[in-house]
Here is the input.
Amino acid sequence: MTVIHRESGVIKKEWGGKLPVLLVYPDTYRAGMSNLALHTLYGILNSMDNVVCERCFWRKGQKGPLSIESNRQVSDFSIIAFSISFETDYINAVDFLRASSIEPYSSMRTHGPIIMAGGIAITLNPEPISAFMDVCVIGEAEGLVGDIMSVVHDGLKTRKEKAFILKELDNLEGVYVPSFYWVGYNTEGRIEEMEHKFKKGKRIRRHIAPLSEGISSTVIYTGDTTFSDMHLQEVSRGCRYRCRFCISGYAYLPPRHRKLEDLKKDLLSLPPCVKKVGIVSPMVTEYPHLNELLNYIHAIGLKASMSSMRADSLAILDINNLEMSTDQFSAAIAPEAGTYRLRRVLNKQLSDEQILNAAAFLGEHNVNILKLYFLIGIPGETNDDIKAIASLALRIKKALKGGKCRVSISVNPLIPKPFTPFQWLGVIKQNEARDKINIIKKSLKSSGIRLEWEKHYLLQAIISRGDRRLSEFIVHLSNTDKSITHAIKESGIDIEYYALREREHDEVLPWDFMDYGFKKDFLLNEYRLGMKGVITPPCKPGTCTLCGICYY
Here is the structure.
């Protein structure tokens, strides 16, 4: 039995006269179907009368990519659209093109389908994959995808050449055509300038979607996913606390909330398989109508699950409402650092007391799985700070009381991301990371607390802030069957240049050609405040001028 026979909500459309789009998630079916962005795109595309959208999932090593809905060949589609959330999936995307007998490099393709990519990884920095893409979508899909489809549909209908269609797409906000840009490098190999070939000075403006247009929620339900009996529903986008390492506080500015009535309407006709509603937001407890939504979910006979809760904001919840309507089995807290001093560097204004009070609150309300998230490699970090991670984890476990709750911690090296105040930092070396992890493991020995960490973090660090010269590196990784560690060594990539070194503050960065609505000086000021351990107040949309995004 194929996966489609275990799905509910699949959209099948007649192809006649429509623009066929293959929506590709470059990872496993389970991972893709657990991704809310994929559901949102699938729903948006198939809501258009002139478009038919089908799905495909791909991980390196598979054979024979075919669409899920009609088992069609990739060559039957006019657009191949990748939805990419993680930089390391660039490797799977290139492997997909090769497996589909499509030349990976766009410069070698004059005909055939238009290859495009979007998603948060692309929005942050499309350059490492730019050599393979005809089009990259910068920003949020709602309100933009329809314009893109119309341009391509009209162009193909009137038999326009691919080059003509790309020029038309280049006129749209949030659309980046990599082949229209050239990059100049200085004698040290660093970027000197990046310019549009035909429109000097043009920058790609990030598309910001009005959340009033539709709802981002589950479209297809299947047991072959992480959320088998759950309807995911995005209630807000962006985070006003702006932790200096976190993309949610910058890539999705300004913070926005959806209307309660729109969310209620979305819940009116759910299939019988749905037992829970997964409330999705970078900061669920910041949603102003959360208690009303929880009450409504309970009233229609469902339970609720919340994706993330800030430790100092649990008190805003109606406790009785929470007990009635929420499936309290697991929860997560992200202290990020073991000491308050380092949390101030991150702009995470959480004291140990607030964190421990949150743990006690969760223990009182019968949580039985608690996951803690920490970072290592924070500027100014000492071994005492590392030991404090284990110490805080032990105190949290004690605060839960009763001993019935399983505690695990995820400890990962800080990977600086584009368009965050830490974008100039380098990552710590692998031997340093292992030493820090071993200190934590030793301190947690016999505690019953399980520790996990991402050993291959360097690959993400290389790609996330890389430039278009990484194309050969990505092709190499898509070709080799060796481990990531061996593949990186074999490639000869300059790890110091791409991952370990700290960028100069006046250096031209690979993503500087994009306009996010705030100035680079704003990020640099935040960086300097972080190095001093100075806390920046939370964002107040519409009432402050700190970043300027509200007047973008």
In short: Residues 319-324 have pLDDT under 50 and may be disordered. The radius of gyration is 23 Å. Residues 229-448+517-551 form a domain with the pyruvate-formate lyase- activating enzyme fold (CATH 3.80.30.20). The chain has two domains: 3-205, 229-448+517-551.
